[in-house]
Write a structure and sequence with these properties.
539 residues, mainly alpha, 21 helices, transmembrane helix, Poly_Biosynth_Transport
Length: 539
Amino acid sequence: MSSKLIRGTFILTLGTFISKFLGLFYVIPFYSIVGEEATSLYQYGYVPYTIFISIATAGVPLAVSKFIAKYNALGEYAVGRRLFKSGLVIMSITGFMSFLIMYACAPWFASIMIVDQQQIYTVEEVTYVIRAVSFALIIVPFMSLMRGFFQGHQSMGPSAVSQVIEQIARIVFLLAGAYVVLNILKGTVVEAIGVATFAAFVGAVFGLLVLFWYWKKRKQHLDELLEQDESKVEVKLFDIYSEIVVYAIPFIFVGIAIPLYQLVDTVTFNRAMSAIGQAKVADTVFGIVNFSTQKIVIIPVSLATAFAMTLVPLVTSSFVSGEANKVKRQLDQTFQVLLFLTVPAVVGIMLLAEPFYTAFYEHSSLGTDILRTYAPVAILFALFTVTAAILQGINEQRFTVLSLLFGILLKFALNIPLIKLFQGEGAIYATAIGYGASIIINLLVIRYYAGYSLRSIGGKIGQITLFNLIMAAVVFGVYVVLHPLFAIDSKIQSTLLIAICAIVGAAVYFFLSFRTGLANDLLGARLDRIKNKFRKAKA
């Protein structure tokens, strides 16, 4: 692998990580500005938008970059430029059409979510928020294709920088706008949330401006490549677009997995709560389940996303080369490291759910209970992401669509009955069952086509489980002793309590892992590099 490709992959991964990090932690000040109940209104607007934008753009940068890179390697630079120009026109049209559809259908979406007059928000207020966020659809598909064009030329910087700038601009406008509306203009919470969702459009504008700057800066070099065009291949753009659509579909489904589950909640949650006489608190509980706790639970899942990004080319290369043993080793390593790092994070969130929820938002018994229930689902989110990436790597991505649809159907069938029985926790149980079914299907397909089974790492999974149980016992003991000494409704003291317990837990977990050799087995090469650096520093 060339140093240029390694550097490019690192830059793109770093940009994605920074963007996700910002997207996870802006919720702390946002919650403080708008309050608990308003998060449900924000989510009512964002769930349909996320699905629209994922369908319009998921897989496009990767698919476009793949084809441009392919024809650039053949010296057919004009093909990539033709694809780029025609693609910009198509994405502009589809983006504008998506905006019109979402804007026009906003009252219908809102009427699905608001089913009882006792709910906090009205159909008109939810319609306003959905329409505010829909404007971003005009720009994002266009921007997505530009990122794919640069990536196709092995230039990852523009995509990474534009992602980060887009996220920063969105968050700054979101927080500043909501604060100004509520505290300076003395507007309503609905108006503040409308501004907050419109921030998606503002962020997209800034992201696009960055890409335009890179285009202007590099156009001369790109035009020089055109002059070297071989012009030996006649390519029909229709054929390329057909293949792009087929290639992008699995990425679309993986990208909208969580939003689809949230859509099921959006459609059914309030109906189920209203049926059991809980319409007055339905909006608040919905916000806790689908916004507040979900933002915390998704933190360990970011690790799985990082693995999925690097896994596909490695597994593909080994699988295509027929190196079955190498594929098995790569999958062993992936699942073991994934569980080794994700499970203790989940255990920590479960044990420290009360201070976690307080540190992020405010002290809430309901929020604590829902977070504790939701935390284990992070392992399922991570496993689904990675198993879907593996299916892509062994060219069986069609089963990703099948497994996800089956899981969604289970969620849809079980959601209302479970919500009626367990209220907010019921929606989480239905999500866990749906994801669990999807993961089982993915693992069965991987076993059939790649000859791989998790039984081969059963011993390591047992070790990880045992070490987490020991760590949990120690952390729980520390928490019980320290809990009375801290004001648990204080954000600062809750954060301090989390830090102390996390340090103790990490020390116990990694001591056991190093002592038994588990850490060396899973992270050997990385640990050796760290040890060598320490030795050099001492010398």
